[in-house]
Specification:
six-stranded parallel β-sheet; 14 helices; Rossmann fold; 2 domains; 381 residues; seven-stranded parallel β-sheet; alpha/beta
Amino acid sequence: MRVLIDYRPALRARSGVGEYTHQLVKALLESYPASATGDPLALTVFSSSWKDRLVDTPDFRGADAIDKRVPVSLLNFAWHRLGWPPIEQLTGRDFDVTHSLHPLLLPARHAAQVITIHDLYFLAHPERTRAEIRRDYPALARDHAHRAARIIVPSQFTAIEVERQLGVAAERIAICPPGAPNWDPRPAPPPDGYVLFFSTLEGRKNVGGLLDAYERLMARGKPLPELVLAGNATEEARPWLDRIVHAPLAGHVRHIGYVNPANRQALYGGARLLVMPSFEEGFGIPVLEAMTCGVPVVASDRGALPEVLGDAGPLVNPHEPDEIAGAMARMLDDESYRSACVSKGSLRSRQFNWHRTARLVYDVYQQAAEDRQSGRGARTR
């Protein structure tokens, strides 16, 4: 089975979607090596950018790589708005399946087209998005979802939202959650660790609510760990970044920017707890990574976060800073409660495995290809 995956979400910064893309490619290649008997997976990793090049790594061993020097914005406009050029023309190859790791199709003449929808936050708040996401996703997502052969989502929450908001039949949606990293739990939490927020600094992550909660903890007058904000800052982050350099947060909150994947385990290893108070998440990979490493988690009770965290930590109303602060205080102050959350989180993280994800995704590819061959697949432009 010849499959092309659009690797561009992972080309520059492997945040949530980028990490999912990279780890999925790696897991597919490990689970379905080209030398296997039967119907092996012939995987092509596609990228296109004017500035950034696709770098060959051991994680790509067994895959073909196609790297085009076409600006991302130009190709996205042509693909999203014109449905051109088809991937067969652009690459000079034929495929059975193409997989876009975002909600809009890769144009194809013959291949079955699979898309991944991580969340639909762009429909509720297009003003909090930018570039092609603001221009194209709200206008085109419904049409592309109905034309896709199959839709992959990371959680039950997103599956329900795709069915409800886009009107897609449930049988065309496949839940393929990400896997936990291959990390051993840390031997012990650091006594002088920090409170960690790890995600892109954007509106839906509720950074302002977290800062409000942290200020309430400061007002208790008790010793309080530093708050570390890790992740790229968007334009929306300017007020928060300005706030943390002035009293009362100055000297207590630090923004360290994007963290390279090679340094993420160490980042979690130094944390007393992770706080993820988002208004909505399609999954919430930092919660899974923290549990794997043995870091207790405080998370929002919205979106897919309750699916990921389960009973391994407190779920809070993201609109209530006092509630966020109370959960953080208990996690910091109550050692037995914290230890119980760490134990539950470690067990829960083992339910998420990238090789299982690869099997689920491979099954989607097979179904999409078979439907295409039999004429049951979704129609393309």
